[in-house]
Amino acid sequence: MRQLFPRPSAELSDVDLARLYSSGPAPEGSEPRVRLNAVSTVDGAAAGPDGLSGSIGSPADRRVFDVLRAWADVVLVGRGTYVAEGYSALRTRDDLASYRVGRAPHPHLAVLTSSPLAAQAAESGRGAVFAVAGALHDVISGLREDGMTRVLCEGGPHLASSMLAAGLVDELCTTTTPMTLSGNAIRTLSGTAHRSDLELVSLLEQDSTLVARWRVTTAQ
Prior knowledge:
Elements: E1 2-5, H1 14-21, E2 34-41, H2 59-71, E3 74-78, H3 79-84, E4 108-112, E5 129-132, H4 136-145, E6 151-153, H5 157-165, E7 171-177, E8 196-206, E9 209-219
Parallel strand pairs: 2-6, 2-7, 3-4, 3-6, 4-5
Antiparallel strand pairs: 1-8, 7-9, 8-9
């Protein structure tokens, strides 16, 4: 993987990626606190024919996916995504563990749901899995009050759209895979129409897959 913007670079290792994603521009010059991560095809499909995002992923997407989780204190997903994608307790890759010094060794998983979540005991050496409910502003505030200040939202499309519309996202991290999928595939964002203005922070490329970071400047 190489960086195209803001400065062209030679090949980046996973350690280089972790360093790159460990901080960056955000409102008032602070570190990003809420990131939204999404993968899509060139024509905007957010899932393959099986309805899962993994089927349109790539090795480049997986590398950044792991780095973003190593950055996060908690991964936030909607209940539908939790069930469909088969989420379980999360674990940081061993080679990225040094980027969690002073924090919990693995990110926790928070599932946004208005219905009971089946109890799931965290596996040994993995983060906890728990349910959250309520208005999104209150959910994010509650996570921060519990010490989880780095929030990574992985969707689904309705939650992602609602997070942006509520002005809660500092950075949008996108992966564009080099394929098209015509038809009625779901999009990265779905729900009430709204606009968010973005500023490109960085752009990476690996095997024609484009990986971008966008600072969210305004939401309307």
